[in-house]
Amino acid sequence: MPLFKSIKVNSKTSVHIWKITEDPIQLASGLFLTSESKARVTGMKSQIHRCGYLSVRHLLALENYSDVDLFYDEWGKPHLNDGRQVSITHSFDFAAIIVSDTPVGIDIEKVRPKVVKIASKFIGSEWSYLDQHGDHFVRHLTAIWCAKESLYKRFAIAGLSFKNHLHILNFHPQDKVFFGECRFDTMLHRHQLAQLSLGEYHCSYIIG
Fold first, then answer.
1. Cys-Cys with 65: which of 40, 60, 94, 109 at CB 3.0–4.6 Å?
2. CA–CA dist 62, 68 (Å, integer)
3. Are residues 138 and 196 in the same domain?
């Protein structure tokens, strides 16, 4: 079982990360899936997506949940039947979940140069501290993208803009803990986030 890492954030919050090395048949072995989930997996054309979907169910089992305990709302946000908060992510070789008693979000992204081409779509106030000529520009952009994805998953509000409504405050790649804000209409929420490097991948999640 390739559990890559488990992090006990605090007494109410846990993060679990899976490194995907199996194929879908191996991952499906021993899992109970609802008929809806079976149909969803069967309909996935990408093996990467099937593996990500199935590995998340293994991670849920670490928190004593099964596929039947998970459901999604109209915005695609995952929920647990007992009312605890959950956020899910998967990207190529990794999948992760965060489970908590408070609202959370988590994201994993592969560090790729293509992020530079889309930076103008999600970078807003962050241009003020970004070194666009630095050696770590791609990783810095990826880290900000990850952080904003984590915030977006926490709120899942229609019309929320990564560029205009989500802000990562004076964040640098070496920071283990940092802050992000959601400013939308009359709403202002600030959250503390954490990050970690997974080699060619980057992970961010809300811790408070």
1. 60
2. 15
3. yes
